[in-house]
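Go through this:
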Amino acid sequence: MTDRIARKIVVRGRVQGVGFRYNCGMVANSLGVAGWITNRDDGAVEIHAEGAPDAVADLADWCRQGPRHARVTRVDVRGAKLNGYGTFSAMH
């Protein structure tokens, strides 16, 4: 499919220990976005998202708020290489 894009999304703030990875996975799956999310050592979460441009943009928009207990202070979105992921998973 040529209508797929990939983005690396790094979310900073209080985003670990608040269900961010789980909720992001639920949102990604509902949008049809594939890829992964993981906690980083610096306290941020990193997401690799692949899918339709609108769906990936919607996931990035959701990341700016996150789940109820998250306090997002910064979201960086950059282009990434398509890897052909078929599902979205939370990595540790």
Observations:
- Residues 4 and 52 are 5 Å apart (CA to CA).
